[in-house]
Amino acid sequence: MLTVDFDRFPVAPGEQVLDMGCGAGRHAFELYRRGACVVAFDRDEKELAGVATMFGAMELEGEVPPGASARTVTGDALGLPFPDDSFDKIVAAEVLEHIPDDMAAMAELLRVLKPGGRLAVTVPSWLPERICWALSEDYHTAPGGHVRIYTRAELEAKLKATGFEVGGHHYAHGLHAPYWWIKCAVGVNNDENPLASAYHKLLVWDIMKRPLATRLAEQVLNPLIGKSVVVYFTKPAVPATREQAHAAA
Hints:
Helix content is 43%, strand content 20%. It is an alpha/beta fold. The chain is globular.
């Protein structure tokens, strides 16, 4: 299940792309299929082991175009182990809401992105996330959980202050917000609840089959209750002067 829209965020074969905070690797796998030279980065070594295994399986199954490459790297988002201007594109999907010093992480993303390069950031949308927090303390207080709720304006303002230029946005996963409200209401770890279980089966069916009915439903629901907001940014080709940065702020 992808959150980034690769029609809005096209990736060319051979481009150097970082998936920062890749988790289980859903975006890294899509980048690899599109022919990128992918670095899947995360602090969770166990997750990365699974990602590396899948990279190998994709290559064996012939899912990877010639010239593409993929590797995993473990580390901390506040000190990315890459030189300046390393990547043509960066994906940071559902990760900044976990990082207490988010602006330090944003500064690292700016540092390792090439001038003119593009960044796709996704975070939980304000309204669906606020409802989840109101329904369940466990949802956001678990170790490694969410430490903040962004408005889109706040996310854009922080990344603009870091040095990025904003390049459009959209919302995703409108069908998923009600599922998480149900989970929060009945207990986030209560997988046996009949309503939560039935809704989960609906989501799995939607992901596997992508029927027209649910695709149309998501188009309607995404702007209203999309679980994630996706914002696209560009690193200026020429660094802004201090006066320009002050004016933009």
